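Propose amino acids for all 257 sites.
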Protein backbone atom coordinates (compact mmCIF):
# COMPACT_ATOMS: atom_id res chain seq x y z
CA UNK A 1 0.00 0.00 0.00
CA UNK A 2 1.19 3.53 -0.77
CA UNK A 3 -0.29 7.01 -0.33
CA UNK A 4 0.21 9.84 -2.79
CA UNK A 5 -1.41 13.17 -3.71
CA UNK A 6 -3.41 13.40 -6.90
CA UNK A 7 -4.75 16.41 -8.80
CA UNK A 8 -7.50 16.56 -11.39
CA UNK A 9 -9.68 19.18 -13.05
CA UNK A 10 -13.39 19.87 -12.61
CA UNK A 11 -14.89 22.49 -14.92
CA UNK A 12 -11.63 24.43 -15.08
CA UNK A 13 -10.80 24.23 -11.35
CA UNK A 14 -7.93 22.15 -10.00
CA UNK A 15 -9.10 19.68 -7.36
CA UNK A 16 -6.83 18.03 -4.79
CA UNK A 17 -7.12 14.42 -3.73
CA UNK A 18 -5.25 11.73 -1.86
CA UNK A 19 -4.91 8.24 -3.30
CA UNK A 20 -4.21 5.19 -1.12
CA UNK A 21 -3.16 2.54 -3.61
CA UNK A 22 -3.69 -1.19 -3.30
CA UNK A 23 -3.70 -4.14 -5.69
CA UNK A 24 -7.35 -5.12 -5.55
CA UNK A 25 -9.78 -4.71 -8.43
CA UNK A 26 -12.44 -2.90 -6.38
CA UNK A 27 -11.84 0.62 -5.10
CA UNK A 28 -13.60 3.10 -2.82
CA UNK A 29 -14.33 6.72 -3.73
CA UNK A 30 -14.83 8.56 -0.44
CA UNK A 31 -16.97 11.70 -0.68
CA UNK A 32 -16.67 14.16 2.23
CA UNK A 33 -19.75 15.53 3.98
CA UNK A 34 -20.49 19.12 4.92
CA UNK A 35 -17.52 21.38 4.32
CA UNK A 36 -15.03 18.85 5.64
CA UNK A 37 -11.66 18.49 4.02
CA UNK A 38 -10.74 15.08 2.68
CA UNK A 39 -8.99 13.92 5.87
CA UNK A 40 -12.31 14.13 7.72
CA UNK A 41 -13.05 15.13 11.30
CA UNK A 42 -10.44 13.77 13.75
CA UNK A 43 -8.60 12.55 10.58
CA UNK A 44 -11.13 9.74 10.53
CA UNK A 45 -11.38 9.50 6.74
CA UNK A 46 -7.62 9.39 6.32
CA UNK A 47 -7.37 6.59 8.89
CA UNK A 48 -10.27 4.71 7.32
CA UNK A 49 -8.68 4.99 3.87
CA UNK A 50 -5.40 3.59 5.17
CA UNK A 51 -7.15 0.59 6.72
CA UNK A 52 -9.16 -0.15 3.60
CA UNK A 53 -6.08 0.10 1.39
CA UNK A 54 -4.23 -2.25 3.75
CA UNK A 55 -7.09 -4.70 3.20
CA UNK A 56 -6.42 -4.58 -0.56
CA UNK A 57 -8.74 -1.85 -1.91
CA UNK A 58 -7.56 1.47 -3.34
CA UNK A 59 -9.22 4.59 -1.91
CA UNK A 60 -9.50 8.11 -3.32
CA UNK A 61 -10.49 11.05 -1.09
CA UNK A 62 -10.79 14.56 -2.50
CA UNK A 63 -11.71 18.15 -1.67
CA UNK A 64 -14.58 19.41 -3.77
CA UNK A 65 -14.39 22.87 -5.35
CA UNK A 66 -13.92 25.65 -2.82
CA UNK A 67 -12.93 23.29 0.00
CA UNK A 68 -9.48 22.62 1.45
CA UNK A 69 -6.78 22.54 -1.22
CA UNK A 70 -9.15 22.71 -4.18
CA UNK A 71 -9.84 25.73 -6.37
CA UNK A 72 -13.22 27.06 -7.42
CA UNK A 73 -16.48 28.01 -5.77
CA UNK A 74 -18.08 25.87 -3.08
CA UNK A 75 -21.55 24.99 -4.36
CA UNK A 76 -22.54 22.84 -1.37
CA UNK A 77 -23.62 19.22 -1.39
CA UNK A 78 -26.39 19.84 -3.94
CA UNK A 79 -23.90 21.26 -6.43
CA UNK A 80 -21.10 18.71 -6.37
CA UNK A 81 -22.25 16.29 -9.07
CA UNK A 82 -19.50 17.45 -11.40
CA UNK A 83 -16.88 17.18 -8.65
CA UNK A 84 -17.83 13.58 -7.89
CA UNK A 85 -17.91 12.71 -11.59
CA UNK A 86 -14.44 14.22 -12.14
CA UNK A 87 -13.06 12.37 -9.12
CA UNK A 88 -14.48 9.08 -10.36
CA UNK A 89 -12.86 9.54 -13.77
CA UNK A 90 -9.53 10.49 -12.18
CA UNK A 91 -9.72 7.46 -9.88
CA UNK A 92 -10.28 5.04 -12.74
CA UNK A 93 -7.44 6.59 -14.75
CA UNK A 94 -5.06 6.38 -11.79
CA UNK A 95 -6.00 2.76 -11.06
CA UNK A 96 -6.64 1.09 -14.44
CA UNK A 97 -6.78 -2.35 -12.84
CA UNK A 98 -9.98 -1.48 -11.00
CA UNK A 99 -13.10 -3.20 -12.27
CA UNK A 100 -15.56 -1.86 -9.68
CA UNK A 101 -15.85 1.39 -7.71
CA UNK A 102 -17.94 1.75 -4.58
CA UNK A 103 -19.06 5.24 -3.52
CA UNK A 104 -19.14 6.08 0.18
CA UNK A 105 -20.44 9.21 1.89
CA UNK A 106 -21.62 10.29 5.33
CA UNK A 107 -24.33 12.88 6.04
CA UNK A 108 -24.96 15.20 3.08
CA UNK A 109 -22.29 13.37 1.08
CA UNK A 110 -24.55 10.31 1.29
CA UNK A 111 -27.45 12.49 0.15
CA UNK A 112 -25.44 13.74 -2.82
CA UNK A 113 -24.66 10.16 -3.84
CA UNK A 114 -28.30 9.15 -3.49
CA UNK A 115 -29.45 12.04 -5.65
CA UNK A 116 -26.84 11.84 -8.40
CA UNK A 117 -24.46 8.95 -7.79
CA UNK A 118 -26.88 6.68 -9.55
CA UNK A 119 -25.98 8.39 -12.83
CA UNK A 120 -22.22 8.70 -12.37
CA UNK A 121 -21.11 5.12 -12.91
CA UNK A 122 -20.70 3.67 -9.41
CA UNK A 123 -21.06 -0.08 -9.05
CA UNK A 124 -22.27 0.04 -5.43
CA UNK A 125 -23.05 2.64 -2.76
CA UNK A 126 -22.48 2.79 1.00
CA UNK A 127 -24.53 5.61 2.54
CA UNK A 128 -24.13 6.67 6.17
CA UNK A 129 -26.56 8.87 8.11
CA UNK A 130 -28.06 10.59 5.03
CA UNK A 131 -29.07 14.22 5.51
CA UNK A 132 -32.75 14.86 4.70
CA UNK A 133 -33.27 18.10 6.65
CA UNK A 134 -34.38 21.06 4.59
CA UNK A 135 -32.61 24.39 5.09
CA UNK A 136 -34.33 26.30 7.87
CA UNK A 137 -35.60 23.11 9.55
CA UNK A 138 -32.45 22.28 11.49
CA UNK A 139 -34.23 22.39 14.86
CA UNK A 140 -36.75 19.68 13.95
CA UNK A 141 -36.43 16.53 16.02
CA UNK A 142 -37.39 13.01 15.05
CA UNK A 143 -40.17 11.36 17.06
CA UNK A 144 -37.68 8.62 18.01
CA UNK A 145 -35.34 11.20 19.51
CA UNK A 146 -38.19 12.79 21.51
CA UNK A 147 -39.31 9.39 22.80
CA UNK A 148 -35.74 8.55 23.77
CA UNK A 149 -35.37 11.79 25.72
CA UNK A 150 -38.66 11.29 27.58
CA UNK A 151 -37.75 7.67 28.40
CA UNK A 152 -34.53 8.90 29.97
CA UNK A 153 -36.44 11.50 31.97
CA UNK A 154 -38.99 8.95 33.23
CA UNK A 155 -36.16 6.72 34.42
CA UNK A 156 -34.73 9.57 36.50
CA UNK A 157 -36.26 9.93 40.01
CA UNK A 158 -35.28 13.60 40.07
CA UNK A 159 -37.56 14.29 37.09
CA UNK A 160 -40.52 12.76 38.96
CA UNK A 161 -39.72 14.98 41.92
CA UNK A 162 -39.65 18.02 39.61
CA UNK A 163 -43.06 17.00 38.26
CA UNK A 164 -44.55 16.69 41.76
CA UNK A 165 -43.12 20.05 42.75
CA UNK A 166 -44.53 21.78 39.68
CA UNK A 167 -41.14 22.34 38.12
CA UNK A 168 -42.18 20.95 34.72
CA UNK A 169 -43.47 23.09 31.86
CA UNK A 170 -46.75 21.28 31.10
CA UNK A 171 -47.24 23.06 27.78
CA UNK A 172 -43.86 21.82 26.61
CA UNK A 173 -44.57 18.37 28.02
CA UNK A 174 -47.85 18.09 26.08
CA UNK A 175 -46.10 19.33 22.93
CA UNK A 176 -43.37 16.73 23.33
CA UNK A 177 -45.77 13.84 23.92
CA UNK A 178 -47.85 14.84 20.90
CA UNK A 179 -44.80 15.00 18.60
CA UNK A 180 -43.32 11.81 20.04
CA UNK A 181 -46.39 9.86 18.92
CA UNK A 182 -46.75 11.50 15.53
CA UNK A 183 -45.00 10.95 12.19
CA UNK A 184 -41.85 12.78 11.23
CA UNK A 185 -42.36 15.84 9.00
CA UNK A 186 -41.84 15.11 5.32
CA UNK A 187 -39.39 17.07 3.23
CA UNK A 188 -38.82 17.43 -0.49
CA UNK A 189 -35.21 16.42 0.14
CA UNK A 190 -36.31 13.09 1.65
CA UNK A 191 -38.56 12.51 -1.35
CA UNK A 192 -35.71 13.46 -3.69
CA UNK A 193 -33.20 11.01 -2.26
CA UNK A 194 -35.75 8.22 -2.29
CA UNK A 195 -36.56 8.89 -5.93
CA UNK A 196 -32.89 9.20 -6.84
CA UNK A 197 -31.88 5.95 -5.19
CA UNK A 198 -34.77 4.11 -6.82
CA UNK A 199 -32.95 4.48 -10.14
CA UNK A 200 -29.78 2.75 -8.95
CA UNK A 201 -29.44 -0.89 -9.98
CA UNK A 202 -26.34 -1.78 -7.94
CA UNK A 203 -26.02 -2.96 -4.33
CA UNK A 204 -26.78 -0.34 -1.68
CA UNK A 205 -25.93 -0.36 2.02
CA UNK A 206 -27.42 2.28 4.34
CA UNK A 207 -25.63 2.68 7.68
CA UNK A 208 -27.27 4.48 10.59
CA UNK A 209 -25.94 5.55 13.98
CA UNK A 210 -29.16 4.80 15.86
CA UNK A 211 -28.85 7.62 18.42
CA UNK A 212 -27.66 10.26 15.97
CA UNK A 213 -30.30 12.93 15.26
CA UNK A 214 -29.53 13.06 11.52
CA UNK A 215 -29.91 9.28 11.25
CA UNK A 216 -33.14 9.35 13.28
CA UNK A 217 -34.69 11.97 11.01
CA UNK A 218 -33.66 9.97 7.97
CA UNK A 219 -35.10 6.76 9.38
CA UNK A 220 -38.36 8.48 10.26
CA UNK A 221 -38.73 9.58 6.63
CA UNK A 222 -37.58 6.30 5.07
CA UNK A 223 -39.54 3.07 4.38
CA UNK A 224 -39.38 0.99 7.57
CA UNK A 225 -39.09 -2.29 5.67
CA UNK A 226 -35.95 -1.42 3.68
CA UNK A 227 -33.65 -4.41 4.24
CA UNK A 228 -30.63 -2.40 3.09
CA UNK A 229 -30.64 -0.39 6.32
CA UNK A 230 -28.14 -1.44 9.01
CA UNK A 231 -28.00 0.16 12.45
CA UNK A 232 -25.53 0.40 15.28
CA UNK A 233 -26.28 1.69 18.76
CA UNK A 234 -24.13 4.80 18.87
CA UNK A 235 -24.71 8.55 19.03
CA UNK A 236 -21.56 9.27 17.04
CA UNK A 237 -22.45 10.82 13.69
CA UNK A 238 -18.93 10.07 12.39
CA UNK A 239 -18.67 6.60 13.98
CA UNK A 240 -15.80 7.81 16.15
CA UNK A 241 -16.06 5.41 19.10
CA UNK A 242 -14.11 2.14 18.91
CA UNK A 243 -17.06 -0.19 18.35
CA UNK A 244 -18.74 2.02 15.75
CA UNK A 245 -15.46 2.66 13.93
CA UNK A 246 -14.85 -1.09 13.60
CA UNK A 247 -18.44 -1.71 12.50
CA UNK A 248 -18.16 0.96 9.79
CA UNK A 249 -14.92 -0.55 8.50
CA UNK A 250 -16.44 -4.04 8.36
CA UNK A 251 -19.55 -2.84 6.51
CA UNK A 252 -17.49 -1.02 3.89
CA UNK A 253 -15.25 -4.07 3.41
CA UNK A 254 -18.38 -6.20 2.90
CA UNK A 255 -19.54 -3.83 0.16
CA UNK A 256 -16.11 -3.85 -1.48
CA UNK A 257 -15.89 -7.64 -1.35
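Proposal:
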Amino acid sequence: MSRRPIQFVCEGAALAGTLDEAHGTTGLLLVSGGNEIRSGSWAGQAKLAARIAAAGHSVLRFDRRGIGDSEGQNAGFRGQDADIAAALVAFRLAQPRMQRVVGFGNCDAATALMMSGTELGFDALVLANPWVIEAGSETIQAPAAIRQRYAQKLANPWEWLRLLRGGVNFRRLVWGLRHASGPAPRSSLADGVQAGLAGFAGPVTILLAARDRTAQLFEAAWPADDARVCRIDTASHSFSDDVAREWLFEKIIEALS
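Residues 2-136+185-256 form a domain with the Rossmann fold fold (CATH 3.40.50.1820). The first strand starts at residue 2 and ends at 10.
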